[in-house]
Design a protein that fits this description.
The structure is a homodimer.
Chain A: E1 21-26, E2 38-43, E3 48-53, H1 61-69, E4 77-84, H2 90-108, E5 115-122, H3 129-142, E6 144-145, H4 148-154, E7 163-171, E8 174-183, E9 196-201, H5 207-219, E10 225-226, E11 236-241, H6 260-279, E12 287-295, H7 298-310, H8 312-319, H9 326-334, E13 345-348, E14 351-352, E15 354-355, E16 358-359, H10 365-372, E17 376-382, E18 390-397, H11 401-408
Parallel strand pairs in A: 4-5, 9-11, 10-18, 12-17
Antiparallel strand pairs in A: 1-2, 1-6, 2-4, 3-11, 7-8, 8-9, 12-18, 13-14, 13-17, 15-16
């Protein structure tokens, strides 16, 4: 991997084993220099799954396959290769996904449509599928519980560190485990980007509940981050529940009080993974939190927050540690959502800079300039839309020379 | 000015004097190091004007003033300062615009609402309006025909060269002149960006015709370019017709056959100015033309073309001279407009790369790689929407280290 992002966590976290999830990874030869590039997760019989996918209209055949496969709510395996996105590869691309799923199904003794497939990497290059199918028997033999770090590393592309998060939660009197891993560092924008995330629990949750939990927690995590406004063709987040934790109260609705702790913990894991993607944003040196309040709706708040988070001028100013808050004002203005420009307020690092459509009389730049020198930048904007109570928080990183260097020469 | 863009024209063009337009510029002390920062254009009595402005909801008070002032269709003067955008400056900001307009009106003997005002530069800093009003009498004395280069230079901010374009046209048997100048190099996106443009003709054109001409030609010029997807608070394009060229057939409708040559020439001048802004895109080393065909409508085609032109991944790949056409496919997919991914085609430098949703069998990268090394990059995408005949062409530049350097430290 390239040198670690300055925002990377010190090390891969210790994650709980999730009963009913066995993992293995290998280097099948798609990536150069023998780097690991193939991961399989085996899921116990009876596992329920839910998925969320890219909204791109040029989505790859693996996304097309998974969208259909998650409909039955069951999953027995997830197979992911990195180094080749298998996108814009025509009929062969779709056939390669089917071949991969069938090979895994045969090895694990399940139906092909219980196998979920993801691919990430370069677009428009035929997938060397034989490398995958040849390597799969070895991977199947190596499957074991708790191999999170190896799995997380095998799905990386331009990532500078593998990303994992996990915790335990209580459902009734029973302790259940939640753990997952993710990848992504460029082409990251709302509605999924080149971003893969897999989260597992040994709780027993019916597929309809799982779907709602995934949607709810994605909206405030993977769908609330942006690195560069580019959305990918392969984005996938899967949530799987094995039901192997031991008996707990049966849950049939997302608002069941017994699910309260689980929901909170699942959100924490999802948010942690999403934040790690931002921390690994290509070239990132600063982690930026943008909170918008006082908007006409939560949706409007998110549009405005993303307008700020995606503004190259805001992001380069932050890279340059320049307290150029005027660019935040401009980004709010271009979002097109209802605001009151004469009453809106902009704060950076907790310091309110504006009032009545102008800088505050006693505004002093020094404390803001000092905040800009740190690694964590907080932007808060109240847009003062009349009667507006909509709010949203999104996360992004700065735009630096590193981004240009990484993306100017990705394929070579 | 900073070192000239490698895409800059060799020199400022020779432009025809436009009868009824007198110009002058000076350094009033807003910019540092005595650089020119104040420009006045005096327009003959009877001049008609039309304006197009930023759609930003945090538009500055000069834009608010001009929007109201152009309604009567008359204009006697344009005054522009650079170095301070007078945006987000509260009540003082609006008062400063009024004071500037009144000072010019008094000097030239016209009504204040016949004076159009623009400001460009940093946001959120009170305008030192006294510097402007003190300098105006000297500027008024220096007014003369044909001082285009001085006017163009005085409105620049991060521009690396002044931008001008002009030509002559025939209306009936009469020769009329068209000339103008513009500024802008960052914060450039459709719907105007930190972009100012002023175009003058000595034809006699009623204000309603002028408005339609401006809208039509802007849509295919200033509103078809993007540098960084950021829209500014101050964007303004004004078109003024002095009627001093000498008698020509009266024109009362935009589709009057007598106007055909003028329309074409006006479009050429507007497009030339817009292209010069892209050529001066912050950090630009390549001029990129994106043409989209086969879309459901012209509007859809423009959305897709802008999605490609604004994609940081496409722009960095081009900066790196990398024929990474997969990123073009991804940018088409994220645009959200109707396409047929299995039939769409992508061409770069005139070489068709894809067919049937995959790279062509005999696709060879060498000629495309060679095209990528040039300064002019052509991207053509036919999105094959069923029955689609919509098309659009937009222009942008690459995203380089230069952009980061310029914008990471703009204010210091």
């Amino acid at each position: 991997m390239p040198p670690k992002s300055p925002l990377a966590p010190k090390s891969f976290p210790k994650l709980p084993a999730v009963a009913g999830v066995r993992l293995a990874a290998t280097a099948c030869g798609i990536k150069k220099r023998g780097r690991p590039d193939l991961m399989v997760a085996e899921l116990a019989p009876g596992t329920t799954v839910a998925g969320m996918f890219t909204k791109s209209l040029t989505a790859g055949p693996a996304v097309v396959w998974d969208r259909a496969a998650v409909k039955n709510g069951r999953g027995r395996a997830i197979v992911v290769n990195a180094g080749n996105a298998n996108v814009f590869t025509g009929r062969k691309g779709a056939a390669d996904v089917r071949a991969t799923a069938m090979a895994v199904a045969k090895l694990l003794g399940c139906a092909a449509d219980d196998v979920l497939v993801s691919s990430t990497g370069v677009i428009g290059v035929p997938l060397p599928v034989a490398k995958i199918t040849r390597a799969l028997p070895g991977v199947a033999k190596a499957l074991k519980e708790g191999a999170w770090a190896a799995a997380a590393e095998a799905i990386c592309t331009t990532d500078t560190f593998p990303k994992g998060a996990g915790t335990t939660a209580r459902i009734g009197g029973t302790t259940v485990r939640i753990a997952g891993f993710a990848k992504g560092s460029g082409m990251i924008a709302p509605n999924m980007a080149t971003m893969l995330g897999y989260v597992f629990t040994d709780a027993a949750l019916p597929a309809p509940v799982l779907r709602k939990l995934l949607k709810e927690t994605c909206d405030r995590s993977f769908n609330a981050i942006t690195v560069d406004s580019d959305t990918s063709t392969s984005d996938t987040v899967l949530l799987a529940a094995t039901g192997q934790a031991g008996k707990h109260p049966k849950v049939s609705r997302i608002d069941d009080p017994a699910l309260k702790d689980f929901r909170k913990k699942l959100q924490a894991v999802m948010t942690d993974l999403a934040h790690q993607i931002v921390r690994d944003g290509e070239g990132a040196t600063k982690f930026i939190t943008v909170k918008v309040t006082g908007a006409a709706s939560d949706r409007a708040a998110k549009v405005i927050a993303m307008s700020i988070a995606n503004s190259p001028l805001v992001k380069t100013a932050i890279a340059g540690e320049d307290a150029n808050w005027g660019r935040i004002v401009a980004a709010v203005g271009k979002a097109g959502e209802r605001i009151d420009a004469d009453r809106m307020t902009v704060s950076v690092g907790g310091v309110r800079i504006t009032e009545n459509g102008a800088p505050r009389k006693n505004y002093k730049e020094a404390p803001v300039a000092c905040h800009m020198k740190g690694q964590y930048i907080d932007i808060a904007v109240d847009v003062a839309a009349k009667g507006g109570r909509g709010e949203a928080t999104v996360w992004t990183c700065d735009l630096t020379h590193g981004y240009i260097t990484i993306n100017g020469d990705y394929r070579s």
